[in-house]
Amino acid sequence: MTLNNYFNIKWKHINSSTFMYGTYLSFKEKGTYFENSLVPSGIVINEWNMMSYYPKDKSSPTLPILEKGEIYQFKFDYDVEPESSIYFKVIYYRKDGTELDYLIVRNKSCEVTYPEEAYSYKIQMINAAAERIIFREITILESNIINDSNLEMNISEVINKQSDLNVRNIIFVEPSFQDLELLKKAANEFYNVILVINWDRNDMSDNIDHLQGVFENFVNEYELHFIGYGPKSNIMAQSMGQIIKSQVFKTYHESKELSKQLESIMGKYQLKLARTPYVYRYESDGFHPQYLENTLNPVRYFKYLDATLINRGYFNEI
User: What residues contact residue 268 under an 8 Å CB cut-off, 6+ apart?
Assistant: First the structure.
């Protein structure tokens, strides 16, 4: 990874490692529900891979590429009955596919140094007499953002500045894909860009209050465009468009979980009659199967957003 980044890894589909004999398995918005009291201890319930061969594994890579010698924090978010009845195993492999080393993780977080000799890795969830599991996600954080102060919301300086244009294109960075270098590259044709980073961290109500205070000062001078490109950033952009009457640009994705969370927050604001959001992408790009959607960076959808439309500030003229 070449950025200040964290990755959220979900369990969204069955692969060749998933233990299915006698299993009840349900994929929900709030997590994956697994129930099976017959799984022998020591058996792999599911695994996530950095590399895979689809004809054999029947799955695509779900883990990010890590930098050799770098330190990461792994966080495991789940509930299990009985308590402490699963654990995780991180296995490192050489280039020839042989096992280099492994790490057993019995707590919900650990610090990991990615070996210099490692070519790839996988994470296994292993049974230790579990009966029911609600698995939400694995989060992998780079060492340079483990400090909580770096996880606070951040509003960037203006990027690709064009002083003669009275617009500000405010992009809410999708929480699960914080590749800022790739994002800047994808948005290279957009002028006067402001990135809102880590807006989902800490107290969301406080974050929204702060954003309202900042961007209300912009309204008299600039036309504001709130832009999302993934399930959560779309919801946040649309919410801010209601608080500060501004044009919203979004894709078809929507996070029901975040939408429900914001319902309880939005009630305290005097919401404006918002403009209809401009949906610049109504469906997947069609090049990748649906099961890959959660592993691909949605900044690719910016190619469908007309730069002229957001750069010239037409919407105040309507």
Answer: 205
For 82, residues 6+ apart whose C-beta sits below 8 A from its C-beta are 129, 130, 131
Q: In 3-state terms, what secondary structure has residue 171?
A: strand
Beta strand 109-113 with 71-81 is antiparallel
Pairing of strands 44-49, 99-105: unpaired
Is the N-terminal amide bond of 55 cis, ω within 30° of 0? no
DSSP conformational letter for 115: P
Between strands 193-197 and 154-155, the pairing is: antiparallel
- Do residues 47 and 14 make contact, with C-beta atoms less than 8 angstroms apart? no
Q: Please, which residues have CB within 8 angstroms of residue 45's CB and are 6 or more apart in sequence?
A: 18, 19, 34, 39, 86, 125, 126, 127, 130, 133
Say how many Å lie between the first and final Cα of the chain, rounded. Answer: 43
Residue 311 Cα to chain centre, angstroms: 27
DSSP state for residue 315 in the 8-state scheme: G
Specify the pTM. 0.55
Most confident of 197-201, 222-226, 274-278: 222-226
Residue type, position 266, single letter: M
Give Cβ neighbours of residue 101 (< 8 Å, ≥ 6 apart). Answer: 91, 92, 115, 118
d(CA 129, CA 131): 7
Can you tell me which residue has the tokens 């078809």? 252
pLDDT tens, position by position, 121-147:
999 999 999 999 999 999 898 765 444
